[in-house]
Every structure is written in structure tokens, then in C-alpha cells.
Amino acid sequence: MLENEEKIVEKAQNGDKSALAMIVNEYQDRIYHLGLSMLKQEQDAEDMLQETFMTLVEKIHQFKGNSSIYTWLYRIATNIALKKLKSKPRKYPHIPIDEPDFKKIHEEETKEEMEFDFEKVNNYKFRKILNDFLDELPPKYKTVFILRDLHDLSTRETANILNLTESNTKVRLFRARNYLKEKLEDLQKEELMV
Predict the structure, then answer these.
(1) Which of 10, 56, 74, 175 is least buried, going by the fewest C-beta atoms within 10 A?
(2) Do the beta carbons of residue 138 and residue 47 sit within 8 Å?
(3) What is the pTM of this model?
(4) Total count of domains within the chain
């Protein structure tokens, strides 16, 4: 988190280039990793990073301070990544968020958390498989999972970035986790049969 954020943002809004540079330096690595997580291509992540900070420079005066500058930048970056993903051909079926089981999912979403064996999570082969499963998710579920579980943002921060309700964010996260859990369980069963 940027120390003296309000003062630095105010200086940036008044045209102070060193204040803008401080914001860029503070958040460029996290924004880049968000781009890699969502887009999977270094060039696409670099393009997203550049577009995000160009938007910062162009629109810093529009920042009202209703959230942190970090949350505001994540929203910009996420929107840019989602536009890039929409322009790519789909390779998955669309799953509507308003399916009849919405209430059941909302009630159960806090019951089951994904548990990982961290030795496996750090294994390259496992990470590759998990990334492949993530790529199968529709962007609206994948994005919530990446922001919440891979970038450790809170439900509220994720909801603000994606302009969703917290409840909708939780449902999307539940669906993403459930899908990944089922895929990983199927994989584990296959490995036991071999």
C-alpha cells in the first residue's frame, strides 16, 4: 500500500509527474501479474499494463477517492483484460449466473473452501494443469477467482473492481472454485487408477 496515498494522488492530479511515477512503481508488478493470470501471454499482459497506466495518466483527475487508488487501477486493468478476452474466440459453454440454483449456491458458498496441498501447488506440472482448468472457465468466473484467490483481494475489493454486488461476487467465486475442485478431483481419481 502506498504511504500518504491521498497526498500523492492529489499531487498526481495536479500534474506532478514524480507522484504519477510513484503510483506506477508501487503497483506495476501487481497489475502485470494480474494480466499474466488473466491473459496468459506476456505480450498481452504488457499491453494491458501499458493501457492501464496510460488510462491513469489520462484520467487521474476523475479519481474521486471513493476507493483506494489500487482498487481503481485494478478495475481499469481488469476491464482492459476482459475486453481483450472478449475479442478472443470462446472455447467454453456459457453458464448463466441467474440459474435457478442461485439461492442454494448463495447459501452454500461459505461452506466449502478449496484446500490445496501446497507442495503440489508449487509443483510446475500441477500449476500448468490448474492454469489449463482456469482457461476453461468463462471470464466472469475466472476473473473473480484470480482476484480473490490468486491476488488475495477481499470480496468487497473484488466486487468494487468488477462493479458487482458482494453476493454476486461470492456466487461467481463459489462456481469457479467448485468447477476447479471437481476437475482436480477427477484428475486425482484418474491418477489413482493408473
Answers:
(1) 10
(2) no
(3) 0.63
(4) 2
